[in-house]
Amino acid sequence: MSYIIENTLTNLYGVEHKNSYIIEGSKVIYSSKHLSKYRHFRVNTNQFVLTPGYIMIDFGILTIDDFQGFKDGMKHLQTIGCTTLITACDVQVEDQIDRELKRAKHALINSSIDYLLGVKIPLKKLTPTLVRKCCKYKVPILFTEINAPEDIHTIQWQWIRNELFPYQIMIVPIWNISAPAWKLRKLKSDWDDVLTKNKILTQQDSPSEHTPLPKQFLFNIGLYPMKGSLQVGTDADYLLFSSKGLVDNESDLGELYPDVVIANGIVKKAGSNVIMQPGCGKELIVNIPRRFNPISNAFQSDAISIDYY
Known about the structure:
The chain is an alpha/beta fold. The protein folds into two domains: about 1-50 and about 230-275, Urease, subunit C, domain 1 (Roll); about 55-220 and about 285-300. Helices cover about 25% and strands about 30% of the residues. The chain contains seven helices and 14 strands. The strands form two sheets. Strands 1, 2, 3, 4, 5, 11, 12, 13 and 14 form a nine-stranded mixed beta sheet that branches. Helix 4 links the parallel strand 9 and strand 10 (about 170-175). Helix 3 packs parallel to helix 4. The N and C termini lie far apart (about 50 Å).
């Protein structure tokens, strides 16, 4: 089925403008400010604000053993507007990565939304061989649990950097250290300095779970613009927020749940009704991370160079 979302107020990462979109099946096939010449079925969204579907992190979804609990977890994600899930399998040693990735894919076989798999491992267990395996399996994000301050300086970063060519994995720290705020800031600064010096893509903190990921993060792991945008050819993932609800509650989009959730052109939530379709979500494979990263980022003062040698 093809339809037009006509003259809707679109909020793209805080920037608002009016636009119209043609949706066909699971894709956005055209967008323009004026689509008066087309004779498709039209959807009136004058009372709504439209945004791209949210991409969120949830580490706990893989730890749920029973189907009802998994279904409830998916229902909650759809309720808060998540149309794409990022999760990570726990790996303690590099020999486990093959088995844990297979187990994670099996656990998500009933996912009702699209998902991206990463790997989570203690930093002291991070090795060039493990990074090579992540590149082989096209894992674009690696979460490292930092349990001791000295772990940062015991890793063979130069060897890891060599394994990251040409598949540039993003390494994100999870801080499990109890320390005064000033000391933790110093550790985060050291982490940033070490990885930037070795030209490894990172950031100082892991994003919070169940919160929309920023655009630059999606660029870095290779999901944008296929996810998190409404450009031509991308997946039809979008949310509708009631304009009246935003005004009455004096809130911005981040403080309210969407009234309508669409993922791959399929209604996942309408009002208070959350529609579950176990198994319709697909695994997302990132062939080239940072493929559409803007060239302007190369000239920012805090940019990470992509000159590998």
